[in-house]
TrEMBL record:
<keyword id="KW-1015">Disulfide bond</keyword>
<feature type="transmembrane region" description="Helical">
    <location>
        <begin position="172"/>
        <end position="200"/>
    </location>
</feature>
<feature type="transmembrane region" description="Helical">
    <location>
        <begin position="33"/>
        <end position="56"/>
    </location>
</feature>
<feature type="transmembrane region" description="Helical">
    <location>
        <begin position="343"/>
        <end position="362"/>
    </location>
</feature>
<keyword id="KW-0813">Transport</keyword>
<dbReference type="InterPro" id="IPR004156">
    <property type="entry name" value="OATP"/>
</dbReference>
<dbReference type="InterPro" id="IPR020846">
    <property type="entry name" value="MFS_dom"/>
</dbReference>
<feature type="transmembrane region" description="Helical">
    <location>
        <begin position="68"/>
        <end position="90"/>
    </location>
</feature>
<keyword id="KW-1003">Cell membrane</keyword>
<feature type="transmembrane region" description="Helical">
    <location>
        <begin position="588"/>
        <end position="612"/>
    </location>
</feature>
<keyword id="KW-0325">Glycoprotein</keyword>
<dbReference type="InterPro" id="IPR002350">
    <property type="entry name" value="Kazal_dom"/>
</dbReference>
<keyword id="KW-0472">Membrane</keyword>
<feature type="domain" description="Kazal-like">
    <location>
        <begin position="418"/>
        <end position="473"/>
    </location>
</feature>
<protein>
    <recommendedName>
        <fullName>Solute carrier organic anion transporter family member</fullName>
    </recommendedName>
</protein>
<dbReference type="GO" id="GO:0006811">
    <property type="term" value="P:monoatomic ion transport"/>
</dbReference>
<dbReference type="GO" id="GO:0043252">
    <property type="term" value="P:sodium-independent organic anion transport"/>
</dbReference>
């Protein structure tokens, strides 16, 4: 029952966390902020963990763990609802466009003669209306609260399973929980895909007046709707934990050959062993606080544990940076909509990770891998996945052809600094800040109808066509009336052909890397002393989230921002979200940074193996010496029931003492 409850809690937290990842581009556009600020919002979840995780891991292990997990789930749900709140406080979404009013098919609008005073007054009114505390602050605070609530779920839940499950089954149980936690993102990204298709102000605006499609860089989906759904599911996940006990009977391992059947029966029947099966008396807070610092010193004095932390911190930096911005990379590099990018992440990529993590647990159980075998298996799968990931660098697409940004107005390579203004639009009162892309008959995208030199238009809504565009030219018909339509031009066919190979390689590499996920996690809890297990898990989570979860989205976002070619502007005239990136530079900095971090981690792995082998040899010598001393003591008083009881009490034939015996 605890395994089922914990699996559902893992599913709920993974669902809301992955949905948060899937809405990054939606939040960026809705609040007109850069990728750098989106990284800060994403890292705020880890800030919440940082505030309480060490104390929750240590004190929570001595208190009622299921109820503490229940409280955490409730806090997570409240944080998720807080994230959705700005939608109900902020005004309607204003699409950045050079066309200030809707027109019908009988009107004739001349973009080239647009009145700049109208644009200025509109922006000023909007700026006054939305002045005050930035709405993204509520998203930041809600994510912090989510982080605080999620804190007890992993360290207390996993330690609870490992304490009360048979030793041979604990790896499989942990693999099941981890697998469920990866199934959650499948539904999270699918929910993100569904909500990204729905317009942000659905039900409040006439969709006929919306001139953009889901593939447009200005489109914002109903991001708030998914948070209401995930918050409700997280709240439900808290219910089962209120009815679970503080502790369970400790199982006696049936395959534990260190105890004879007589000794096993003696453990259960002897009156002196009654205390082994009584509920533990709650420890005083003063005593727990007094023991905290020495316990922490003992844990951090383990060099193998420190190297393990270094490796996971570096690899988590790479992993978190890639996962956070992968949907955005698919959007910008391969020209896919946010909805399709999230759909592909949920249907193709995440199931491969789930299958890999479950398969890793099965392999460890079937082949009975010891801790050294688990370490080698984890390292091998990570290295193979790394080599496969190098091929991503070769799967690139060219930049979109945008006049004045990536190519000249004649369609040729830019000879010098890009400029949005040319002789063909010099007579128009165009704004260089607008982003209202139109596609010309010559296959070039223009930043706005005004910058395309268009002098008239027809139609309305998404069917609007701009005519007599002086900047649009065809070699076969240089003087004809050439038109442009709303939206960017589609990418070249060569990019569409590369995209399926990118998806296939992504699936294979994700599966191979995740094979080592469960053995690597079991490795952590097996080379640590039983009494330090919960604290070790808590410090591991604290370190990875503090040094990877917080900074990785921020510096990945900041580096991605450097590749922006055209920034949008908010209503107050400040810099908003990026509208178009240099795709080649984006690919190099995004993939290069992620692969570079993983390269560094492998050097720490080599050092870790050397220390790990030394650690195992030292433990074997200590176990052999202790075993010989106990056997000598026993041989002096054969058939003595008193001494037999002392032996059983000393050996405590539980799974945690198996290695010692």
């Amino acid at each position: 029952m605890f395994l089922a409850a914990l699996s559902f809690a893992y599913f709920a937290k993974a669902l809301s966390g992955s949905y948060m990842k899937s809405t990054m581009t939606q939040l960026e556009r809705r609040f007109d902020i850069s990728s750098y600020l989106i990284g800060i919002i994403d890292g705020s979840f880890e800030v919440g963990n940082l505030l309480v995780i060490a104390f929750v891991s240590y004190f929570g292990a001595k208190l009622h763990r299921p109820k503490i997990i229940a409280v955490g789930c409730i806090l997570m749900s409240f944080g998720t609802f807080l994230i959705a709140m700005p939608h109900f406080l902020i005004g309607r979404y204003n699409i950045e466009t050079s066309v200030r009013s809707s027109v019908n098919s009988t009107n004739n609008l001349s973009p080239c003669l647009n009145n700049p005073q109208l644009s200025i007054s509109f922006s000023t009114v909007g700026c006054v209306r939305e002045s005050g505390v930035p709405m993204w602050i509520y998203v930041f605070l809600g994510n912090v609260l989510r982080g605080i609530g999620e804190t007890p779920v992993q360290p207390l839940g996993i330690a609870y399973i490992d304490d009360y499950a048979e030793s041979e089954n604990s790896a499989l149980y942990i693999g099941c929980v981890q697998t469920i936690s990866v199934i959650g993102p499948v539904f999270g990204y699918l929910l993100g895909s569904l909500c990204a298709k729905i317009y942000v102000d659905i039900g409040y605006v006439d969709m006929e007046t919306v001139t953009i499609s889901p593939g447009d860089a200005r489109w914002v989906g109903a991001w708030w709707l998914g948070f209401l759904i995930t918050g409700t599911i997280t709240l439900i996940s808290a219910v089962p934990f209120w009815f679970l006990p503080k502790s369970l009977p400790v199982p006696v391992d049936k395959h534990d050959t260190s105890c004879t059947p007589e000794q096993t029966r003696f453990i259960k029947d002897s009156p002196t062993m009654e205390h082994k099966f009584r509920p533990e008396e709650p420890a005083s807070l003063h005593q727990m606080a007094k023991e905290f610092v020495p316990t922490l010193k003992s844990l951090l004095g383990n060099p193998v544990y420190i190297i393990y932390l270094c490796v996971t911190i570096i690899q988590f930096n790479s992993l978190i940076g890639m996962v956070t911005y992968k949907p955005k990379y698919i959007e910008q590099h391969y020209g896919q909509s946010a909805s399709k990018a999230n759909f592909l992440m949920g249907v193709i990529n995440i199931p491969a990770v789930a299958l890999g993590m479950f398969s890793g647990g099965v392999v460890m159980k079937k082949y009975k891998l010891d801790i050294m075998g688990a370490a080698k298996f984890t390292f091998g799968t990570s290295l193979l996945g790394y080599f496969l990931s190098l091929f991503f660098l070769a799967m690139g697409c060219d930049n979109s052809k945008v006049a004045g940004i990536t190519v000249s107005y004649g369609g040729y390579e830019l000879p010098s600094e890009p400029s949005l203004f040319s002789d063909c639009n010099s007579d128009c009162l165009c704004s260089g800040r607008e982003w209202d892309p139109v596609c010309g008959e010559n296959g070039l995208t223009y930043v706005s109808p005004c910058l395309a030199g268009c002098t008239s238009s027809s139609g309305s809504g998404r069917n609007m066509v701009f005519e007599n565009c002086r900047c649009v030219s065809l070699p076969s018909a240089p003087t004809e009336n050439l038109t442009v339509t709303l939206g960017q031009c589609p990418r070249e066919d060569s990019c569409d052909k590369i995209f399926p190979y990118f998806l296939a390689l992504s699936v294979v590499s994700s599966f191979i890397i995740s094979l080592g996920g469960t053995p690597g996690f079991v490795l952590l809890i097996r080379f640590i002393k039983p009494e330090l297990k919960s604290l070790a898990l808590g410090i591991h989570t604290l370190a990875t989230r503090t040094l990877a979860g917080i900074p990785a989205p921020i510096y990945f976002g900041a580096i991605i921002d450097t590749t922006c070619l055209k920034w949008g502007y908010n209503l107050c005239g400040g810099r908003g979200a990026c509208r178009i990136y240099n795709t080649s530079a984006y690919r190099i900095v995004y993939l290069g940074l992620a692969l570079g971090l993983r390269t560094v981690s492998f050097f720490f792995c080599i050092l870790g193996f050397a220390l790990f082998k030394r650690h195992i040899k030292r433990e074997e010598k200590n176990a052999l010496a202790n075993g010989n001393a106990e056997m000598e003591s026993l041989s002096k008083e054969e058939n003595s029931s008193t001494h037999c009881e002392q032996f059983v009490l000393a050996s405590d034939c539980s799974p945690d003492r198996e290695t010692h015996l």
